[in-house]
Amino acid sequence: MKQKIVIYFVLLLSVSSIQARGIYQEPAEFLNETFKKGLPQAKVIWLTGQIRADATKILQHKPDQLRVRYWQKGQRSAWILNEIGKEKPITVGVIVNKNKIEKVKVLIFRESRGDEIRHAFFTQQFKKAEIHSDTQLDRPIDGISGATMSVRALTKLSRLALLLSSKIK
Question: What does the buried/exposed string (b/e) look like for 109-121 if buried means 16 or more CB atoms within 10 Å of the residue's CB?
Answer without folding.
Answer: bbbbbbbbbbeee
